[in-house]
């Protein structure tokens, strides 16, 4: 009967466990870094899209990221207009109406444009956070 001996597998196992621990620490930080970039780009897009006298800037200022949410195997962060105006109308509703329009108002897809512009900067910010966490 043949025998199979392994040498050094314990070291490989320890390295894999350390990588897993670093990844668990990195993911929430990566999500927050990407969300910060996305918030800034969405605010900029709204401010450059809406120029009417009725625009107060409150919609742009309401864009925020949420806390990191999710379970052990998945994490996520939401970025959207939060809160309500003085009349009780949700800022997310206003953002949705501006994005998709209504029968008496054309769509002004600010979020689509912002998300397209943000794709590479968000990716770069998340990758930078990953690299910082892995080397640190």
Structure description:
It is a single chain. With 136 residues, this protein is mainly alpha-helical. It has one domain. The protein has four helices and two strands. It has helices at 9-49, 58-61, 91-100, 110-135, and strands at residues 63-65, 79-81. The chain has a two-stranded antiparallel sheet with strand order 1-2. The longest helix has 41 residues, at 9-49.
Helix tally? 4
Tell me the structural class.
Answer: mainly alpha
Portion in beta strands: under 5%
**Strand adjacency order, main sheet:** 1-2
- One letter per element, helices H and strands E, the order comes to HHEEHH
Q: Specify Rg, calculated over alpha carbons.
A: 22 Å
Can you give the helix content as a percent range? 55-70%
The tally of beta strands, per DSSP, is 2
Uncertain runs with pLDDT below 50, 5 residues or more? none
């Amino acid at each position: 009967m043949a025998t199979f001996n392994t040498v050094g597998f314990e070291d490989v196992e320890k390295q894999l466990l350390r990588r897993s621990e670093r990844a668990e620490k990195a993911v929430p930080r990566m999500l927050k870094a990407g969300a910060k970039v996305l918030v800034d780009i969405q605010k900029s897009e709204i401010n450059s899209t809406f120029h009417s006298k009725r625009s107060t800037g409150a919609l742009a200022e309401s864009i925020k990221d949420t806390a990191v949410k999710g379970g052990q195997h998945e994490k996520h962060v939401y970025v959207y207009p939060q809160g309500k105006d003085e009349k009780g109308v949700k800022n997310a509703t206003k953002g949705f109406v501006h994005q998709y329009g209504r029968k008496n108002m054309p769509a002004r897809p600010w979020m689509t444009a912002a998300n397209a512009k943000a794709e590479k900067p968000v990716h770069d910010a998340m990758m930078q956070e990953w690299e910082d966490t892995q080397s640190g």
